[in-house]
Design brief:
alpha+beta
């Protein structure tokens, strides 16, 4: 457990903090920094662990984290990172499929009880690839937006030059913001997400062929795609490998 937490913190420090994947996370131990003017109090990040590969055990661990968050003020517990290293271990297609299936089960279970009105989820896996997460061209709860939405998002955000000139390979590096050393879930309070996104964060996005979709997080996703492309695949791969080696 300690090795997994150390590896996960290394990923968060490398991508979330140093590459500013989340502009309101400034350290691995404190979350929601800089949102005080919007009524959100920074607080500690909880690191929780479940070593079982069983779907029911993972779901039980998830709900334990939800109950803990519900019963604890955000000044004492801001957000939770739940480590599930035995769920879809490895980086092959079978591992990614197992990750996607179990985390969809968890996501749907939360939504079934309308928990998505209280919490948001962010899913991580070392082989994370949004083009292999279903539905591929529609939003998937807890996941990045579809990859074919990124160019329209960047154009809408004013990053027209990058949207037109970035290669598909560079755009694909966007996935590395979710490539933690193992399966993990960030359970976030919705009030923090709303404060971070700001007013009128949901916009109409023209994704091509006359299709208009509702989208949010335009600025963050555009910035992250551009920034990770600048880091480059070699350095990003080395970071993932170094994190995994810590376990």
């Amino acid at each position: 457990e300690n090795k997994c937490t150390t590896a996960l913190k290394s990923f968060i420090d490398r991508i979330v903090v140093n590459e500013s994947a989340c502009p309101y996370t400034k350290s691995v131990d404190i979350a929601a920094t800089g949102l005080e003017v919007k009524g959100v109090t920074p607080g500690p990040v909880a690191y929780r662990f479940n070593g079982s590969s069983d779907a029911c055990a993972a779901l039980g661990a998830f709900w334990s984290c939800v109950c803990e968050l519900l019963g604890t003020p955000e000044s004492e517990l801001s957000t939770t990172m739940l480590s599930l290293p035995a769920v879809g271990p490895g980086v092959d297609d079978n591992a990614l499929n197992r990750f996607a299936i179990i985390l969809e089960l968890i996501s749907r279970n939360l939504c079934l009880f309308r928990g998505d009105a209280v919490f948001g989820l962010v899913h991580f896996h070392p082989a994370y690839d949004r083009k292999l997460i279903h539905p591929i061209n529609k939003p998937a709860y807890g996941h990045l937006p579809p990859e074919n939405w990124l160019r329209p998002m960047m154009k809408l955000n004013g990053n027209t030059e990058e949207a037109e000139n970035m290669t598909d390979e560079e755009l694909h590096l966007n996935n590395y913001q979710r490539r933690a050393p193992f399966t993990a879930i960030n359970i976030l309070r919705v009030n923090q997400l709303n404060a971070a996104a700001g007013a009128k964060s949901i916009v109409e996005l023209d994704v091509g062929d006359g299709i208009i979709e509702k989208a949010s997080g335009i600025t963050t996703y555009s910035r992250n795609a551009i920034r990770l492309a600048g880091v480059g695949k070699t350095q990003l791969d080395a970071g993932v490998e170094a994190d995994i080696a810590m376990m």
